[in-house]
Every structure is written in structure tokens, then in C-alpha cells.
Amino acid sequence: MSDVSDDIEIRDDRAAGRLEAVAGGEVVGHVEYFVLDAPRTAFVPVHTIVEPAHEGKGIAGSLARDLYRRAAAEGVDVAPLCPYVVKWAARHPDEAPAADPELLDAALDWLAAHPGRF
């Protein structure tokens, strides 16, 4: 599902809460996220990180796009807390529906209740 190149694979490590961009067997970028259960299910991206040697190659954008595609395929919302994903979503409203304020509030509450998670 990558838009960067055929050399990049994006994989979801749901148990670890990481969407990873992999090139040559090496993780070159990732989105850290959690799955919110209430008031309804949503993916909540918290951080997007691209290794310095791979910056400027569109990896972060591909990770954001893939997260929204996975959410749509699973019928869940995205409540982005990651500043990069928030900006990406604003630039791509056709791919990233506006976040529900109720879900954003619930995501912030979850994050505050789990201070060591991220």
C-alpha cells in the first residue's frame, strides 16, 4: 500500500501500535498509534518518525495515507493527535475525513490516563 516506491513496504504491527515503513528489511519510518475503543473505535496516531537518512522521500505521507486507508477498510475513524498527521489530513480532505471532536477528546483523555505509553 505504499505510494513511495516498490522498495518500501508498509506493515501494521497492531500489537505494538506501530505502522512501519520498511525498506531492505530495515524500518525507515513509523507511526506510533493506539486503538481507541470508546465512544467508538478509532485509530489514534500519536507520533510519526522517519529516520534522518530517509527524510524528504514521502515516507511520512505514505504512512499517513496508509493509516487512513486501513481505517476506512476496517470501518473505523481516525482521531489524529500527531501534528504531522493532522497537517497531512488537512491537506488531503478527500482521503482523510475530518476528525470527530468527541473522539479527539476521548483520545486525549486516554493518553492522559496512560502517561508512560508514548
Structural notes for this entry:
The chain contains 3 helices and 5 strands, in the order ββββαβαα. It has 118 residues and is an alpha+beta fold. Strands 1-2-3-4-5 form a 5-stranded mixed beta sheet. Helix 1 (59-74) links the parallel strand 4 (42-50) and strand 5. Helix 1 (59-74) packs across helix 2.
Question: Which helices and strands appear, and what pairs or packs with what?
Answer:
Elements: E1 8-13, E2 18-23, E3 26-36, E4 42-50, H1 59-74, E5 77-78, H2 83-91, H3 101-113
Parallel strand pairs: 4-5
Antiparallel strand pairs: 1-2, 2-3, 3-4
Helix pairs in contact: 1-2
Main pleated-sheet profile: 5 strands, mixed
Structural class, by secondary structure, is: alpha+beta
Strand proportion, as a percent range, falls in: 25-35%
Mean pLDDT: 93
Estimated radius of gyration: 14 Å
Q: What's the shape?
A: globular
Number-wise, the strands total 5
Helix and strand element order = EEEEHEHH
Q: What proportion of the residues is helical, as a percent range?
A: 25-40%
Counted by DSSP, the helix tally is: 3
